[in-house]
Amino acid sequence: MTIPTAGMAPLSVLRVSHAEREPVVERLQQAYAEGRLDKAELDLRLHLAITAKTRADLDAVLYDLIPPPTQTTEKPETDPTAEQRLLAALAHVVGIFTLAVGPLVMMCTRARRTPYVRRHITAALNFQLTLLLVTIVTFGVGGIVYTVAWIVAGVAALLALAGRPFRYPFTLRITR
Predict the structure, then answer these.
(1) Per-residue pLDDT, 1
(2) Which residues of 31-44 are buried (b: 16+ CB within 10 A; e: fewer)?
(3) Which residues of the chain have pLDDT under 70?
(4) Residue 95 · residue 124 · CB < 8 Å
(5) Which residues contact 68 (CB under 8 A, 6 or more apart)?
């Protein structure tokens, strides 16, 4: 009796390692977070993934889940143009004078142009909404924070003009 070599065996019957199980477990957890699985089904599939012996066993755990998006479909982002940098900086500056209204108007009118501009408009809007929420919750005392906010928004505008990303500290991510 001869034993078949690994090169002759179909891929589905090859045994899996712990390293091959980990991405499947992560995908199941992601599907649960997306609402594609309920808790009981997640627990069952996690058990099956952890105890899987072959690739066919692992494939069966993910058979009805949409595969995660691949990185190859996304285009690499190019350097922002002068107009894009100006719009991004404007989103931060207009928030100083109009609070959340300015970035919200820009979100409705200019945000779909490029991901760079949208990221900066979203960051400015989230920052202004967070400041507004702090002011309301603290019955106006949080308004003192607005003086510091002017400085932070100015720094964000300068970085946007330079074509660099900026993330406000201690900000709720209300919009995406």
Answers:
(1) 46
(2) bbeeeebeeeebee
(3) 1-8, 67-77, 110-112
(4) yes
(5) 27, 30
